[in-house]
Amino acid sequence: MRWWKTLLLTTATIFVVACSHQDEITPRGYVLMIDGGLQQQRKAIAKALLGDKKVAIAGPLVWADDGTKTNAVPDYGWITATGAIIVQSEKYGVLLIEEPTIIEGKVAWSCVVYPAEAKPKLCGFER
User: Fold this and answer.
1) What is the pLDDT, as a whole number, of residue 73?
2) In this structure, which of 7, 17, 48, 76 has its CB flanked by the most CB atoms within 10 Å?
3) Confidence band (pLDDT; 50, 70, 90) for 10?
4) Angle at 13 between CA 8 and CA 18, to 5 degrees
5) Among 103, 104, 105, which residue's Cα sits nearest to residue 124?
6) What's the gap between Cα 14 and its chain centre?
7) What is the pairing mode between strands 59-60 and 76-79?
8) pLDDT, tens digit, for every residue of 74-118?
9) Three-state SS sequence of the chain
C-alpha cells in the first residue's frame, strides 16, 4: 500500500510542475498597471497646473504603447480641463478617477476606484 501513496504523490507532483501557470490579471492588478501607465500624463498635468496654464492634453486619453502587451489599454479614457483623469475598463469592470490638487506648491493626486476593493494601497498618494 505504500507504493500506491508514493505513486499518487509522484503523479500529483508531476501535474503541479507540468501545468503551465498563467498570470491572471485581477481588477486591482489592472488598476496598478493603468496607474503606472499614467505617469507621463500626470507629470504633464502637474507641470501645467503649477505653471498656471491650461492642461494642454485635456480631451481623450492617448494611451502610449510601451510594447509590453499587458492588455492594460483602457476602453475609455478622458482628461478634463482641470486635469482629472478618468479611465474605464469593461473587461475588468473598473472605473478609475485620479484628480490633482495643489497643496503647498506641490500637486497631490486623489484616487477613486470602483469597485472599492480594486483600489490598490498606493493609489492617490503624493507624487
Assistant:
1) 84
2) 48
3) low
4) 130
5) 103
6) 35
7) antiparallel
8) 889 999 999 999 999 999 999 999 999 999 999 999 999 999 999
9) CHHHHHHHHHHHHHHHHHCCCCCCCCHHHHHHHHHHHCHHHHHHHHHHHHCCCCCCCCEECCCCCCCCCCCCCCCEEEECCCCCEEEEECCCCEEEEEEEEEECCEEEEEEEEECHHHCCCCCCCCC
Q: Residue 23: phi, psi to the nearest 5?
A: -70, 125
110 is written with which cell numbers? 486623489
Name the pTM for this structure.
0.75
Distances (CA, A) of 11 to 20, 22, 58: 16, 21, 58
> Residue 63 — pLDDT band, cuts 50, 70, 90?
confident
Residue 25 neighbours by CB under 8 Å, 6+ apart: 33, 70, 71, 92
Task: For cell 477613486, name the residue.
Answer: 112
Taking the C-alpha atoms of residue 59 and residue 63, their distance in angstroms, rounded to an integer, is 12
Q: How far apart are CA 5 and CA 36, in angstroms?
A: 48
Chain position carrying cell 504633464: 44
Calculate mean pLDDT across residues 50-66.
85
